[in-house]
Structure prediction request, 408 residues.
Amino acid sequence: MKRVVVTGMGLVSPLGCTTDKAFCRLMEYKNCVKHLKELEEYKNLNAKIAAPVLDFKIPEHFTRKVTRTMGTVSLYAASSAEDALKDAGLFGDEIITNGKTGVSYGSSSGSLETIIDFYSMEVEKEIKKINSGSYIKMMSQTTSVNLSLHFKTTGRLIPSSSACTSGSMGIGFAYEAIKNGHQTVMIAGGAEELHATQIAIFDTLYATSTKNDTPNLTPKPFDRERDGLVIGEGAGTLILEEYEHAKKRGAKIYAEIIGFATNSDGTHITNPNKETMAIVMKNALDCAKISPKEVGYINAHGTATLQGDVAESLATEKVFKGCNTPISTIKSYTGHTLGACGAIEAILSIEMMNRGWFCPTLNLENPDENCGKLNYIKDKGVELRPEIIMSNNFAFGGINTSLIFRKI
Prediction:
């Protein structure tokens, strides 16, 4: 089995569009949630808040020929992937196009504006907004396909469209492709674009926060006063590489992936299952061949939904009981970036591990007594020097993922 390391990282996020900027924003203890006036026009939509990306600009060299098959979600993916390849020192390298590099990437769906164009055809019985690139923008594998086309990769292409685990699943499958010797390099991660329909999905489930007048006070993961999630957007891309190849070329190594696991609940489409959530963490630990006590920090999924927080925290308590492992969630800053969250959170967790500082869960004042008894980081960040960290994500459909990273 091959060792797999992270040699490049790129971000588009509500916190900022570089890793350094995003990390510095974490240290300001301010979330990215805004009241959006454009949401006021939707009748019966309760949530009027979200966490948008504010400082993204389409790179000047992304010509119309480049972008004609890209919706916003793919533009976020391609921009962050280009930054990640440059960070890894592999941008323009022949290894990207010679079959040794693959793509493992996902989003919850295709570009939603384009999907609506197709719906309008059925409603209006007229084709007027659809063009040759419409389907590519709309399809669920739009991010992975556009990345492959943009960078001209000819290796494995793995679409990981699995809702809120799309990003972490993309990383996990990329890890396995290199670990098992199928690829040398993988472009991995996830992306999502913000759209009112996404907010409406969770609104109909009574899962969105409605603190429209106090966006700075929400979401409140694990807090007894939490009232739901906030939708965000962005993209995160990691360049994964076989260790010996990275070492030989003198690449900077951010971390090694030593564990990955995924499973499914098999019980309910939206209600989480604490038992299978616990199993996925145990399986990741087994994959890494380590004990729970060796994990020095846990990045929680932490959406601030009533059922999700309870199930996740109880599952974490079951696995890490007696370890007192520090835990926090980046979603308290960015909101729930859906298909992008696993990648954005993995990147920022790695960055925190390397810098020795870990963010608190914002707005966590009084942990819910129904949640697991865990060492929640709250109020202020903490200085830690862990060698190993875990990042967990859970999705609709009962899809669970757990990733483990080690400092190297």
Q: What stands out?
A: The first strand starts at residue 4 and ends at 12.
